[in-house]
UniProtKB/TrEMBL annotation:
Organism for this UniProt entry: Paracoccus aerius
Matches recorded under CDD domains: PrpE
AMP-dependent synthetase/ligase domain residues: 65-443
Coiled-coil spans in chain: none
Family: Belongs to the ATP-dependent AMP-binding enzyme family.
The Acetyl-coenzyme A synthetase N-terminal domain, residue ranges: 3-56
UniProt xrefs under InterPro entries: ACAS_N, AMP-bd_C, AMP-bd_C_sf, AMP-binding_CS, AMP-dep_synth/lig_dom, ANL_N_sf
Pfam families, per the entry: ACAS_N, AMP-binding, AMP-binding_C
Protein name: Propionyl-CoA synthetase
Ranges of residues in domain AMP-binding enzyme C-terminal: 509-587
């Protein structure tokens, strides 16, 4: 069936479409219907009973795939590579789940997971799913404070962490970060499970910490506990406009159905294929397409502990694709830009046999046409940009390769997938004609697998996503749809920025900067960066009478962001200015500052309080090298 027919089929009978998709999943009790008009925005498969771990692991063993590799851990950082079969994975997960159960973890309990790219991270997620416990994975590049914020919000009964992560050239000890976070948090977990890595063996706190291996010793393996279709599988925190991250909730039924549907229809992946999402378990890509998606369809997933460049070189991707016969890769455009910068002619690619490699998928940030063209030419496979968010859990707009490869238009993630009705709206919420820029919104209800609410924050969910355009979900992105129905994402409409495919909040960074004793006022903007897409840049107005030299304050705030948000924020530059440009009502003109920093033409806003400040901002920006091409 063509894409057009598939989309029309969903439009004509969404209920039938999603009931049919649900048949690809094993249910302990099949749902009586797909959509339930309940909760703030509707729920899916609410009266079905299933288990996500069963669907991702056990059922493949039952179906005779026990000897197939479920996970390949390829770690150029530790110079090691090992595989775990489906049968081994089932036993390992059942044992871990049994140990968690013996310490009191049961359905509905929250468990925070703070781990690097090791298979044990997936095993921890799956062990929670086996028991119906709700996991919340925290990305390893976040600092102790960010972990503490999530501990307070999720109130976990347990935390599962590794002793350390490994970044090129340095060990990142996780345990001190974990200890600091627990000390800072007002909620305390009952116990912590520590996976000791040989690179850094952590000191365990008696009475609170248990070691991954020893606490599993002699326990009864746990069977899968069936849960309701609308039971939360996990909570994943993502950046909003403030320092308080949003806890995106994922319900089990829709999560499994949507991932199984997208693996086949978007990524063209079947049982036995090898799929590699080169991301991290701490992000939504890791949840959907490193862990649950490939495993739900019986494919082999790659857990890669390395970087696109520097581990040891810009051929790391090609080596992994060749050695493991990867069929499709999912990566961020930043990674391809980093590889291209090191190997502009793509010479290293020629050393590898990539005959199993069929498609490269890019998401997480805007894919610039230049990068897409380079990858197409050097790799000789379709390069598919696709657009989605932590909130949706799976693609909204994509070229549905598994159904049919539509013509690629570089710069566009292509067309709306079945389940989504994407529209571009004006400020008053009216749909705009083709080619006109506006707010990108999705007509309710959202499809299975998308967020039904925010953890402990239903009001915030309504306010953030549902209230601006009644009847729609507001994506926070701006863009337009062309005459052929291809979407173009142009910018965010809020203060979220995207640094190397990592979603970050400038508001959260501003909260850190304003805590510096010398800072009276501040602003953080995202400026264009040729490698990472965007980089954060701070502006500081210092308190009168501050004696500390400007450069010292800048150095200190850079350290504070690294210490409190984490190295992943990549906050490296700030400039000290006398005043910030504002409207007469006091709103900081961040969008205008971005245009100046990026060297784009702009109109001085009519509401500006004092236009002369823009010259001062331009001077301050030049001093730190912006606009980049002007220096
Ligand atoms: N644990 C601890 N620290 C981490 C980390 C982790 N899991 N991940 C990143 N960091 C640190 C890095 O070491 C770096 O620290 P530094 O400032 O001391 O150098 C900082 O956070 C920024 O990291 P990163 O954004 O990865 O930049 P980089 O300069 O180290 O590498 C690229 C540049 C392009 C190689 C890298 O950004 C990359 O691989 N990008 C692809 C991103 C991606 O796949 N995103 C997935 C979203 S779909
Ligand atoms: P995250 O929740 O981290 O996946 O980030 C989601 C945001 O990243 C989106 O709302 C967009 O702003 C941006 N984004 C993701 N994919 C794309 C894409 N293909 N093109 C442009 N922006 C994207």
């Amino acid at each position: 069936m063509s894409y057009r027919d598939t989309y029309a089929g969903w439009q004509a009978d969404p209920e039938g479409f999603w009931m049919e998709a649900a048949r690809k999943i094993d249910w302990e009790r099949p749902p009586s219907r797909a959509f339930f008009d309940q909760g703030p925005a509707g729920e899916w498969y609410a009266d079905g009973m299933l288990n996500a771990c069963w669907n991702a692991v056990d059922r493949h063993v039952e179906a005779g795939r026990g000897d197939q590799l479920a996970i390949i851990h390829d770690s150029p950082i530790t110079r090691s590579c090992r595989g775990i079969t489906y049968a081994e994975l089932r036993d390992r997960v059942a044992s871990l789940a049994g140990a968690l159960r013996s310490k009191g973890i049961e359905k509905g309990d929250r468990v925070i997971i703070y781990m690097p790219m090791v298979p044990e991270a997936l095993e921890a997620m799956l062990a929670c799913a086996r028991l119906g416990a709700i996991h919340s994975v925290v990305f390893g590049g976040f600092a102790a404070h960010e972990l503490a914020v999530r501990i307070n919000d999720a109130t976990p009964k347990a935390i599962i962490a590794a002793s350390c992560g490994l970044e090129p050239g340095r060990i990142v000890p996780y345990k001190p970060l974990l200890d600091r976070a627990i000390e800072e948090a007002t909620h305390k977990p009952a116990f912590c499970v520590i996976f000791q890595r040989e690179q850094e063996v952590a000191h365990l706190i008696e009475g609170r910490d248990v070691a991954w291996h020893s606490f599993q010793f002699g326990v009864e393996p746990a069977e899968c506990v069936p849960v309701e279709g609308n039971h939360p599988a996990y909570v994943l925190y993502t950046s909003g406009t403030t320092g308080q991250p949003k806890g995106v909730v994922r319900h089990t039924g829709g999560h499994m159905v949507a991932l199984a549907w997208s693996m086949k229809n978007v990524y063209g992946i079947d049982a036995g294929d090898v799929f590699w999402a080169a991301s991290d378990v701490g992000w939504v890509v890791g949840h959907s397409y490193i862990c649950y998606g490939p495993l739900a369809v019986g494919a082999t997933t790659i857990v890669f502990e390395g970087k696109p460049v520097g581990t040891p070189d810009a051929a790391a991707y090609w080596r992994v694709i060749q050695n493991h016969r990867v069929k499709s890769v999912f990566s961020a455009p930043t990674a391809i830009r980093a590889i291209r910068r090191e190997d502009p002619e793509g010479k290293l690619i020629e050393d590898y046999n990539l005959r199993h490699f069929k498609t490269l998928y890019l998401a997480g940030e805007r894919a610039d046409p230049d990068t897409i063209q380079w990858a197409e030419e050097k790799l000789g496979v379709p390069v598919i940009d696709h657009w989605w968010q932590t909130e949706t859990g799976w693609p909204i707009v994509a070229n549905p390769v598994g159904i049919e490869l539509l013509p690629v238009k570089r710069g566009s993630p292509s067309v709306t997938l079945p389940g989504y009705d994407v529209q571009v709206l004006d400020e008053a919420g009216h749909p705009l004609p083709a080619g006109t820029l506006g707010a990108v919104a999705i007509k309710l209800p959202l499809p299975p697998g998308t967020l039904p609410t925010l953890w402990n924050a239903e009001d915030r969910f309504r306010k953030s996503y549902l209230s601006h355009f009644p009847g729609y979900y507001e994506t926070g992105d701006a863009g337009y749809i062309d005459e052929d129905g291809y979407l173009y994402i142009m910018a965010r409409t809020d203060d979220v920025i995207n640094v190397a495919g990592h979603r970050l909040s400038t508001g959260a960074m501003e909260e850190v900067l304003s805590a510096h004793p010398a800072v009276a006022e501040c602003a953080v903007i995202g400026v264009a960066d040729s490698l990472k897409g965007q980089m954060p840049l701070g502006f500081l107005c210092l308190k009168k009478g501050t004696n500390t030299p400007n450069q010292q304050v800048v150095k200190e705030v850079v350290g504070m962001v690294r210490d409190q948000i984490g190295p992943v924020a990549a906050f490296k530059t700030a400039c000290v200015v006398d005043r910030l440009p504002k409207t007469r009502s006091g709103k900081i003109l961040r969008a205008t500052m971005v245009k100046i920093a990026d060297g784009q033409s702009f109109k001085t806003p009519a509401t500006i309080d004092d236009p002369a400040i823009l010259d001062e901002i331009a001077t301050a920006l030049r001093a730190v090298g912006y606009p980049q091409h002007a220096s």
